[in-house]
């Protein structure tokens, strides 16, 4: 329940309509405006040292798993099937 809203839903919509920055560039400002709209403290107000309520808490980035390429394929995409590969053609039709 809103305790002390400082921004109405109409003001929020008006402010963010037409914003063309990327999601990452706008995310923190938008979260802070949502907090103001619902009358909740912003992350910085609620947890000034960032112990439990922070935008980015320094978790290590996830390294994507390397997917092995099919043998004889430099691009990582499967080579086209040909009539001289009946087993591959049969598997592809399943």
Question: How are the elements arranged and paired?
Answer:
Blueprint: H1 9-16, H2 23-38, H3 43-46, H4 86-92
Give a description of the structure.
37% of the residues lie in helices and 0% in strands. It is mainly α and 94 residues long. It has a domain at 1-58. The longest helix is centred in the first third of the chain and has 16 residues, at 23-38. It is elongated. 0% of the residues are buried.
Brief overview, please?
It is built from 4 helices and no strands. With 94 residues, the chain is mainly α.
Number of strands: 0
- Global Rg: 25 Å
Q: What's the total helix number?
A: 4
Order of helices and strands: HHHH
Name the average pLDDT: 75
Which structural class best describes the helix and strand composition? mainly alpha
The percent range for helix content is 25-40%
Low-pLDDT stretches are none
Straight-line N-to-C gap:
54 Å
Biggest pleated sheet:
none
Which strand-content bin applies to the residues? under 5%
What coarse outline follows from CA principal-axis ratios?
elongated
Question: Keyphrases for this structure?
Answer:
mainly alpha; 0% strand
């Amino acid at each position: 329940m809103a305790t002390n809203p400082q921004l109405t839903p109409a003001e929020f919509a008006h402010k963010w309509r037409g914003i063309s920055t990327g999601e990452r560039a706008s995310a923190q400002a938008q979260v802070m405006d949502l907090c103001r709209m619902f009358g909740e403290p912003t992350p910085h107000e609620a947890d000034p040292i960032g112990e439990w309520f922070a935008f980015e808490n320094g978790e290590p980035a996830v390294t994507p798993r390397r997917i092995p390429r099919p043998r004889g394929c430099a691009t990582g995409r499967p080579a086209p099937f040909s009539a001289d590969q009946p087993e591959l053609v049969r598997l592809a039709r399943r």
